[in-house]
Protein 1
Amino acid sequence: MPEILALLIAPDWVRSLTGERPPNVFWAEYIVWPLIQIVIVLFVVLTVVAYLVYFERKISAFIQARLGPMRVGPWGILQPAADGLKLLLKEDIIPIKADKLVFSIAPIISVVSTLVVLAVIPWGAAWATIANVNIGLLFVLAVSSVSVLGLVLAGWSSNSKYSLLGALRSSAQMVSYEVGMGLSIIGALIFARTLSLSGIVEAQRADGLPYFLFQPLGFLIYLISALGETNRAPFDLPEAESELVAGYHTEYSGFRWALFFMAEYTAMLVTSAVAVTVFLGGWYFPGLDWIKSNWGPNIYVLLSVAAFAGKIAVLIYAYMWFRWTWPRYRYDQLMELGWKWLIPAGLANVVLTGVWYVLALPEAQGGVFGFVKQTAGRYVPTGYGKIYFILTGFIITIPLSWALLATINRRSRDFNLHDQRQLQIKLRSERIKRNEPVAE
Amino acid sequence: MQLHGWEAVIFYVLAIGTLFMGVYVVTARLAVHSALCLIATLVNVALLFILLRSEFVAGVQILVYVGGVMVLFLFVIMLVQTRAEEEDKVKLYTRQMWPAVTVAFLLAISFFFAMQPAQMAYRPSQSQTEAEKKGDDPGVRSESGAGLKVSTDTESVGEALYRQAALPFEIASLLLLVAIVGAVLLARGSKQEKLYE
């Protein structure tokens, strides 16, 4: 079975550890090596998550011309350890009238549903990916949609009005932005023709270009929805540190509170990782094949992991940059953006991308231009095809969707909420002038 | 597909878990606890789908039911229910219990007899059992997910949905559209309409 042998991904030393000989390598392939990978990924990701808080403070300090944390260790690099220790040692308070079972399950649901997603993220080439499941992207969307439950249950079980309203606020936001996020990815799937995350990376490698060039509108919608989905500024209304007490986690303290925070920052990492995988080419960068043939497979894998991490770091820096640059949205503006702009734009993007793709198919397949060639079982755009997809994406899809949505949202009587609000305000002020009762 | 070895063990663990959670859904005193158990039931059913090698359906089950429908359920429960409804004030066993038990019993009998012909008709052919044995390893992982078809479940669902089931699919989407328009119309209220008159 030579083709099966080529697919085994565990390094040789794992196989010698279990004393198995190919092709019977069940333990090495499915138990030992994945467990090692899981331990490494969890350790690295949780450390990175702790340091994301540190980087957030340092970057905010940099943007506001301050120093940030400087006391614990040189340049404050031990600050996350100190914070973690403090949170562990704090008293764990459960309000007397809280629903104790649900109160303690809620943070666990949040954390677990974000950590499980890490299993299918393609961290790098060959042996660096834990599980390449066929439904990868669907799995990510499905499991991360469960984390909303954690927030809702936390808000309800605290038995406090602040928590309940905070939970309603944040779960309404997350449910709304999840839809836009799911829609924005479909355009890229038309090109990749697979849901497997490793498959999407391989497809971009075969097509020769990362998909944000073919899917500029999809990438934009994804980035904005991801900000809303992870409750980050400018959409951080659930928490709104400078205005409110807190949201759904008002009653939480100590390590349970830390779990919510951990889930939030891990979600940020996961959404960036998905953006990198689907739109920015994943772990692949031009020249990686040359490195593989000249420097050996191990350096190739390590460099692919480094490339993936680097791309994620750029996106996360952008998130933090947004936070300290833009003011917070008002709640109705947030909902308007999500439902009236992002979701329709995502739908328009799916339809337009489908039209461009069908037009580009060869004539035998029902297309017109023949910019897409079938090679090795999948469709790859030719040189002209790449230019065609980039041009249609940037020059036609974006302006057309924009014009369509602007017509619907700004010029029609029924959908222009801004206009309706202004009219109400005007009528009210007229009533006040005429000394009529204003209560409605 | 017949279950053997570990698959059978996993199946029975999941099935019993599903049943227990289902029973707790109707016996829990607080509606939120019922909802939590319903979530556990739905997750268990998704795992059963994975055991049947239909991971696409499992993913959609989690995405739609757990991530979407149950969140809305919880919304409604949280907004309607207050804690004033204390635990001991809820009567769990009323006179409706006996009709319910009868209906459940009849349903169980009809399930039993409905499944029997299917069980009798199932005779695994030689090639099928061999294919099952080969397919027993939990999928082959590869560097290139695109090149090798690990599982074609997603493709077969897609093919069926847009070829054989295209018309029902469109009808269902139309129904949903009607529901959305109706909901918007009900939510708007007359005040907004009057404003422009």
Note: Residues 166-196 of chain B form the longest helix (31 residues).
Protein 2
Amino acid sequence: MNEFVQSSVMFGVFISLMAYEIGRGIQKKTKKAFCNPLLIGILLVIVFLMIFDIEYVIYFESAKMLGYLLTPATVCLAIPLYEKVQLLKANWKAIIGGIAIGTFVSLFSIFVIGLLLRIEHVQYVTLLPKSITTAIGLGVSEELGGYGTITVACIVITGILGNVCAEWVCKVFKIKSPIAKGIAIGTSAHALGTARALEMGRIEGAMSSLSIVVAGIMTVVLAPLFASFL
Amino acid sequence: MKYLKQMTIILAVTLMGEVIKYFMPFPIPASIYGLILMFVFLMTNVIKIENIKETGDFLVEIMPVLFIPAAVGLIDMAEELKAMFLPIMLVVGPVTLLVMIVAGKVTDSLIKEEENDE
């Protein structure tokens, strides 16, 4: 099996799309928020690789084409943002305020938990950038001397969790306006959460996209300061 | 040739993002510079929305799937994750939810406040 996958150009891409489509089918049938197509897609690919004993690097080699599209796709998040720019202009104080406080809460609560658990400095700075988009988070972690790989893992888990819980959290905690929903999702769960926000609505998606940028840049500025606390 | 033209424009802006990243000392990825650039170009009418709309919407729509290959990589990190299991569990779950709730509630109440002012 490994040999075939190694020779195939499209295998990894196909398996990924297929797994996601199955996930969507399951969500349509069950209508449960935790039957999230992305989560199911990831789990199905993992199970498939285990059953057929395919190494991750070999799968990744034939699926990485999907990852290449991530940069232009992120650039295109400017489109929903542009279309909702009137909302941004009318509510900019609330939007920037929400993202700033969210970013601060993220860094501060990691500091408090770090203090309580008495974790080492290396572990602390590894965790600090966990709510922001992968590429920025990895850069911040490495700059502060953290373990990049673990930071990436935490960022991905954060994103999946945010993606899965977004709708439930908004409902239970009565986050009502679509703007606030978008800010909540983008600030806590970066691009992976934004993928869910875009499915919830165009405004949610636009505001979540904006939060990735603003929260990311704020963290670049604030993380070195927080790193000196512990 | 609508789609080809749209893709060319999108990749041109992406490439500009990569050029900026190359010259900047910050840990900010090309995609973020590209997103900001694209937004500025749209606002200043340098790029018209019709010239990127369909292809751009397609890329945004397929975004969740684009994360699958990297996320599956978690299986190769099992060892490293085990070493920091407790702090990771305590930080990732509760902090993510807390940030989501606080950011959402704060934005919600600030929006209401502004509406009341007007």
Note: Chain B touches chain A through 75 residues (CB under 8 Å).
